[in-house]
Amino acid sequence: MEKGMIMFVPAGTSIKIEGSSWTENELQYYKLDLMVAELKEETSSALHTKDTAEQRSLHKCTDSSIEIPLIQLNYSPWSSCLESMEQIMRQQVIGDWLEQWDVQLRFQEWFRALLRQSNPETEVPDDRARLQSSIRYIGDHYDQTITVDDLAADIGLTRASYTRQFKKITGKLPLEYVNAVRLERSKQLLQLTDDRIHEIAQNVGFSSEYYFGRRFKQYAGISPGLYRRHHRQEVRVFAPYLEDFVLALGVKPVLQCSHHSWGRQHYLGLDDVPEFDVSQQDAQFNLGSVPDFIMLDKGYKTWNLDRFEQVAPTFYVDHIGEDWRSILKSTADVLGKVNRVQDVIGAYEDKAMEAKGRLEQYMRGQTVAFLRISASDITLYGDQQGYVGPVIYQDLGLTPHSRVQQWTRHERRVFIGLEQLSQLNADHLLITFDTGNSAKPGDERELLERDEWKRLPAVKSGNVYEVDFMSWMNYGVISHGKKIEDILRFMA
């Protein structure tokens, strides 16, 4: 017998265990009284056992003329079996009928899991199946003490092998995964209950409210109390260059960012929302527009926006712009708008799929490139990353010109000179003008008068399309939707 093995011995049967080093204290045994309420003749058990020679050597019947075979079952993970058994045994001497019922339910859950695992039609699990079983165990017992050593031992792996394979499947180390399960459950409890923070911490497996609060903020970006508040009331939020995500979720920001050279994001339609110029390092909030909550992306250092941490709780988005779906989900999570995420993403994906189908009829075999033009630079955007590449080349399926792939080499963008521009003989050119470093209005358009520009095939054929700078030089579901609309208008 090994860990995980359970032998059912019919009443009145004697057994003799030979060659065992167990002492009486190490081998646990229980007496179970099972009552059958109804038995139909057509009912047959899925548990068929064979009276093998090995089994016969383990037991002797009191009646030497009859041999009743032992039933051998297995339970994994073993720690789950022990925990269930110990809870049942601790509660067996109780008087309250509800507690007695609870004991019966615990036993039935344990017995059902035992029978399911021991079904002879079930294949012997491989390492991956056992790891999946271990992951399910974590999901069911996250509120209990869990150690990597116990998890590994329960499925017969070394700690190193278990950790390596666990991370391969989940992308996380075992205890990171355990904490993630606990913290996700705590989010639900914060939204759905009025339990105190320390009660929620204990319910999900954290012994200390302080430790729970620290881990929650590391995981969610805000404190548990603030998370709960955002899910119960509207938030006065300031989210410079993240307004796209906030507005897509139905939350109107209390301020909108602007820049003295580029202006504001007109495509969002926030005409009645006051502006805040992030390019002014000494800019302060007006009395009537102080936010309750601030959201910042990875560009906050450029504008020294972390100085506003003293004004209101601040959340830092920890995703790159190309991963806009994750940014949207994080934004929804901290603003209490999780229920809207799938609708927003689904609407975008439907829009992109429909546009892709229309463009296939018109653009078969034709190539496209995107240029950002300023007074001093010509910037070519890549096909894999950046504000435009994932949308026009991946979501819409347009074909990048060969030079786009060759020169950008999976970079977001590269600067090109006039000689390289002359080689960019794409069938269609999308362009936008950057006024950020123009000495006077119109400097950025001087390129259009040069012979190198006029000789480009797209220019000669009239397939050059100017697009709005702010809607194309931004990430976000609204921004990307505007890109799709522009391309359909120009190319379909």
Keywords:
492 residues; alpha/beta; six-stranded mixed β-sheet; 20 helices; elongated
What would your notes on this structure say?
It is a single chain. The protein is α/β, with parallel strands linked by helices and 492 residues long. The chain has 20 helices and 16 strands. The strands form five sheets. Strands 11, 12, 13, 14, 15 and 16 form a six-stranded mixed sheet that branches. A three-stranded parallel sheet has the order 5-9-10, with no helix packed on it. The termini are far apart. About 4% of the residues have low confidence.
What is the topology?
Elements: E1 5-8, E2 13-15, H1 53-56, E3 59-61, E4 71-74, H2 78-90, H3 97-117, H4 127-141, H5 148-154, H6 159-170, H7 174-192, H8 197-203, H9 209-220, H10 224-230, E5 237-238, H11 243-248, E6 256-259, E7 263-264, E8 275-277, E9 293-296, E10 314-316, H12 324-335, H13 341-362, E11 367-373, E12 378-381, H14 389-395, E13 399-400, H15 402-408, E14 413-416, H16 418-422, E15 428-433, H17 451-454, H18 457-460, E16 464-466, H19 469-472, H20 477-491
Parallel strand pairs: 5-9, 6-8, 9-10, 11-13, 11-15, 15-16
Antiparallel strand pairs: 1-4, 2-3, 6-7, 11-12, 12-14
Helix pairs in contact: 2-3, 5-6, 13-20
